[in-house]
Specification:
Helix content is about 35%, strand content about 20%. By secondary structure, it is an alpha+beta fold. The protein folds into 2 domains: about 55 residues; about 120 residues, Beta Complex (Metal Binding Protein, Guanine Nucleotide Exchange Factor, Chain A). The chain is elongated, with a radius of gyration of 29 Å. The structure holds zinc ion.
Length: about 200
């Protein structure tokens, strides 16, 4: 090998070595140079994120058994802040100051998210709670009931069977003929009078 080529060869080998050492130092070894508590903390964060992903896949969050109606961004555009909070984050609106608690018109209440029929005004009754209350859904299969143990209570959550929107809760202290009280949030509903006009 000519001396000129030898110098070139050695230079390339040296450059490769320096580059490799730099890369390992920056992206590999640096992790282990941090203190163990930091590394543990990172692991906990990753674990927490994974748990949340699993949780959202199990929930009514457009996944699992429910059809995705719209993306979260589209829903935020379509719904008011309160409608989004109630239907997507299982919120509860204030009693006596919501849209339908005192509505006595004849008509149908639809899911505000997907438009599925939910409750007929013929089944609405005065519960005194300040929320629209019904003794049964228009069809049993149009709502789905789920166990809710949040807020230190044991309740039965009611969601739209088509899109999974949170609607409210059902209690067993309702009037005849069912003895049930579907306590709904107005913000989860869209009422159309029998003559077809939105209210
Ligand atoms: Zn729905």
């Amino acid at each position: 090998m000519k001396p000129k080529n030898l110098i070139l060869f050695v230079s390339i080998i040296l450059s490769a070595f320096v580059f490799t050492a730099f890369a390992v130092k920056s992206f590999g070894w640096s992790l282990f140079e941090q203190n163990p508590a930091q590394i543990k903390n990172m692991a906990v964060k990753v674990n927490f994120k994974q748990k949340n992903i699993i949780k959202s896949a199990d929930s009514t969050d457009f996944c699992g058994e429910f059809k995705p109606v719209m993306s979260k961004e589209e829903l935020k555009d379509k719904l008011s802040d309160e409608q989004f909070k109630v239907t997507q984050e299982k919120g509860t609106e204030r009693p006596f100051s919501n849209k339908y608690w005192d509505n006595h018109d004849k008509g149908m209440y639809y899911c505000v998210v997907c438009g599925q029929e939910l409750f007929n005004s013929d089944t609405k009754f005065e519960s005194g709670t300040g929320w629209p209350s019904f003794f049964k859904p228009v069809k049993d299969e149009n709502v789905k009931e789920e166990e809710d143990v949040t807020l230190g209570m044991h309740r039965t959550e009611v969601v739209c069977s088509n899109c999974g929107a949170h609607l409210g809760h059902v209690f067993d202290d309702g009037p005849n003929p069912t003895g049930l009280r579907y306590c709904m949030n107005s913000a989860a509903l869209n009422f159309k009078k029998t003559d077809g006009v939105d209210k």
